[in-house]
Amino acid sequence: MGEKERKLQARPMESTANGAVISMPSAVVAVLVAFSVGAIVGHAIGRSTAAEGEEIALRGGDEPKAQPASQKEGEGEGVTRYRIEVNNQMPQKGPPDALVTIVMWSDFQCPFCKRVEPTLSRILEEYGNRVRIVWRDQPLPFHPMAMPAAEAAREAFAQGGNAKFWKMHELIFEHQQELSRETLDRLAQQVGLDMERYRRAMDNHVHQAAIRADSEAGNKVGANGTPTFFINGRELAGAQPFEEFKRVIDEEINHANRLLRNGVPRSRLYETIVKDGRTEAAPPPEAQRPQPRPQPDPKAIYKVPVGNSPQLGPSDALVTMVIFSDFECPFCARVEGTIKQLREQYGNDLRVVWKNNPLPFHQNAMPAAEAAMEVYAQRGNEAFWKYHDLLFENQRELSRETLERLAQQIPGINMNRFRQALDDHRHRSSIEADQQLARQLGATGTPSFFINGRNLRGAQPIENFKQLIDEVLEQAKERVRNGTPKARLYEEIIANGATQPVMLPPSEPAEDPNANRVFDIPVPANAPVKGLANAPVTIQIFSDYQCPFCARVESTLKELFNRYQGRIRLVWRDYPLPFHTNAMPAAIAAREVYRQKGNDAFWRYHDLLFENQQNLSRETLERLAEQIGGIDMARFRKALDTNAHEPLIKADMDAANRTGVGIGTPTFFINGRLLQGAQPVDAFAAVIDRALAEKK
After folding, report:
1. What pairing do the DSSP bridges indicate for beta strands 293-296 and 503-507?
2. Bridge-partner residues for 106, per DSSP?
């Protein structure tokens, strides 16, 4: 996840553009840093604020992509278009001579691609044969089942053309939350595929080359986020509402009809409309400056009803903290210790209320929330909070089996009722009501807190919580002194609260405090290095083997190493992000290769890991280690089994976190100067040249 995953938009889209995957987003700082070196690329997954540790549902952008200056509202001429190829090897709905062709790049595991499907169905219903929809694949690298799902759909197309492709497509989206090879096989049987031929295609990855070709074609025209649409070549990014599609489609129908009246054959209409279109996305402007954005009003009070939600502390507490959280979110887990400290310090003056906000890209978050609410339904508050603690303790393995095993540890749970509740999704509606409330209040990230109605976002330091709690606590005491009964205190405080985000007018962004800062980060004696020890410039790389942007920047680093021969030294530092489940094992494996065979073997293994980034299973880690030659595989396996190098890896992470910068991957310190994200060569060169000049 890159710069786009660091930011949030109101137009839902998931993205893989250049940038850094945020692990503890101080995104305002991070975005400014990235802009300061002049190369932010993305569909702006930007949020209006981003506190440290806030995990945001990947959604696309606060507004649609800005239309080019050449756009003329209400006309089909003079607009920016792309020449997007369409042929009969691509799945499509609608006639080839339709007035409007919509080419879509999509991902079967992307929740926003699923969300836009009803809109596309409505378009076909309302416009009939005037519109054609063409499917192209863009499986995002952080969706492990997106590529297999695309392969299964492609095989359906190979066997049964458009009819079977769209049937398979529909079933895959219906079962998006449970995509496994077993699920895909079952759906293929439902579609009526030749299962022997299907399994052979899946096992041999027959369609991967075509899917990757689609992906590369999408990247070339800027469709590196999903979903992205080109309507007669005009770009529309994200899960936009029907009205946005309708506006462009209506303009294009008028434009197409004018061309028909002027003698263009209907069979050549699409080809004529896009023939002079761009074939590549325009590069971003250099030294682009972030636009001022509205910011949430920190003094605003929101109306956040408690309802029947689980709570800790008395109902007449002076301070009520409502938390919107997700059992699979690493930042929600991180803030749990802070909440416990606050409960100890404030005692019965503080009530904590739990609201569920399972984010769509956490596959186990919704089942975990359903399980927790069933425990609550059966055994009340005390049992809920005990189960809640167990879920966070087992956050990395929230399978159905784990949910049941943990429930058995709660005294008095009727396991038959528990299993039936999960099977029937008995608590789904109440969880979705919590999610709707969160969206309404602008609390789209987790964790989000409302403290006597005042919003605080992210896994912030305890001092930030205490400052706000102390402020509202004094206000609550004043109300009680003035006659408000404690039993009605919270309801009166929030009675006239806002029900949607309250924003301050935009202001110019403050100058980036890190623009000229030099960070003192010592190079560990045991770090893998490439280059001369006395090189004048040292680049420390904080990276993650499962991060797609870390993989993307590797070619840039190789180019820099060749360009600055003898003058730069690369130092590898591990920063495996918690939501990349294979990143830590891969880091441990690479460290073991380094321990056994040194720098050369480490960097060869490092390259192999990035080449096989899509499948960093234990089996793959061992197979790649055997390719290095001379690795004692018994020692290697023992290192993985015992997490032998985890302390070294966590020391790297701690070193990065001590800088106080919102660390994402990849992050670079070039002679101590910060550069974040998969930036172009010139961005690195500017910092390196400055460092070299300072050495003279």
Report:
1. antiparallel
2. 137
Whether 356 contacts 435, CB under 8 Å: yes
Q: How many CB atoms lie within 10 A of CB 67?
A: 15
Any domain includes 341: yes
Backbone angles phi, psi at 570, to 5 degrees: -100, 130
Q: Are strands 667-670 and 537-543 parallel, antiparallel or unpaired?
A: antiparallel
pLDDT at 622 over 90: yes
For the chain, how many structural domains are there in total?
A: 3
Would you place residue 16 in the very low, low, confident or very high pLDDT band (cuts 50, 70, 90)?
very low
* Same domain, residue pair 570 and 625: yes
Structure token pair of residue 494: 């929030």
Domain assignment of residue 16, yes or no: no
Specify the CATH number for the domain of residue 435. Answer: 3.40.30.10
User: Contact, 448 vs 292, CB < 8 A?
Assistant: no
Structural element, H or E, at residue 402? helix 400-407
- C-alpha gyration radius of the chain: 27
| Cα gap 106→215, rounded to integer Å | 10
Look up the domain containing 647 and give its range: 529-695
Instruction: Dump pLDDT digits (tens) for 425-464.
Output: 999 999 999 999 999 998 888 999 999 999 998 888 899 8
> Which pair of structure tokens corresponds to residue 73?
């509202």
C-alpha distances (whole Å) from 669 to each of 510, 587, 599 are 22, 20, 20
Q: Does the predicted TM-score (pTM) go above 0.70?
A: no
Three-state SS for 226?
Answer: strand
How far is residue 138's CA from residue 141's CA, in Å, rounded to a whole number? 9
Read off the pLDDT of residues 452-495 as tens digits, 9 standing for 90 and up: 999 998 888 899 899 999 999 999 999 999 999 999 999 999 99
